[in-house]
Amino acid sequence: MPASVHPKAVLVAAKLPEVDATAFDASLDELARLVTTLGYSVVARISQARSHLAPAAVLGEGKLQELAELTGGSGRAERKFSKRHKAKERDDWEEASLGEAERRDDEERDDEERDDEDDQADSQVALVAVDHDISPSQLRNLEQATGTSVLDRTGVIIEIFHRHAKSHEAKLQVEIARLAYEAPRLRESPRGKERQQGRGAG
User: Fold this and answer.
1) At what angle do helices 190-200 and 168-188 cross, to 10 degrees?
2) How far, in Å, are 15, 35, 44, 51, 118 from residue 22 at the CA level?
3) 37-52 residue pLDDT tens
4) Cα separation of 55 and 141, whole Å?
5) Can you list the alpha helix ranges (DSSP code H) found in 72-135?
6) Is residue 141 packed enough to be buried (19+ CB in 10 Å), middle (13-18) or exposed (0-12)?
7) Local structure of residue 130 (DSSP, 8 states)
8) Which range, of 24-28, 110-114, 126-130, averages the lowest pLDDT?
9) Exposure of 74 by Cβ count < 10 A (0-12 exposed, 13-18 middle, 19+ buried)?
10) Burial of 13 per CB tally in 10 Å (0-12, 13-18, 19+)
């Protein structure tokens, strides 16, 4: 029988200048309760004092790497290029993918000595919960860097309502809220952009 039936979750938050320490801690405590309601066990909190959320992935590179060490991710978020640099973006992506494959091969060899221990720990981190409302690109980059699912505060709340809705009307209301929440994320995804381009063609 496993030691815990609950998958693990890590909380993430940036301490912004306008938020005092008491309010910051209270907000994180509330998020922990929400995540627990979803059925997760909160095992760690990663926080960082910042003047604003990092545009790419909420946290700075150092803290992002610290988070990735808990989740088993690479710690690297996708780099964004303007539309004028699509060819360069594709080339850089292919180059990065080759480098990533080589790095993974090296890591797999290094990890053989501690494979059982690390794999067990990493596989149990099933969610990163962010104590902010973040953009679709920030969410996607965090998922890429951590290698696990990410929900922001609104996403956590919607998921709670979705799981606990009983009546047909309640389920419909939650589904409407969920679709409104996910729509901009779908538009920013590569597949969503392809659909928009296809719709405008001709």
Assistant:
1) 80
2) 11, 20, 19, 18, 35
3) 999 999 999 999 999 9
4) 10
5) 86-111, 115-123
6) buried
7) E
8) 110-114
9) middle
10) buried
The pTM (predicted TM-score) of the whole model is: 0.65
- What are the backbone dihedrals phi and psi of residue 195, each rounded to the nearest 5 degrees, phi first? -65, -45
Render the burial of 159-180: b for 16+ CB within 10 Å, e for the rest. Answer: bbeeeeeeeeeeeeebeeeeee
| SS3 label, residue 43 | strand
- Return the pLDDT at 150: 94
The residue written with tokens 């610290």 in the block is 66
Nearest Cα to 130, choosing from 17, 45, 199? 45
SS3 9: strand
Which element (helix H / strand E) includes 75?
none
**Unique residue bearing structure tokens 């290094």:** 110
Backbone angles phi, psi at 189, to 5 degrees: -70, 155
The three-state secondary structure class of 193 is helix
d(CA 174, CA 196): 26
pLDDT tens digits, residue range 12-33? 999 999 999 999 999 999 999 9
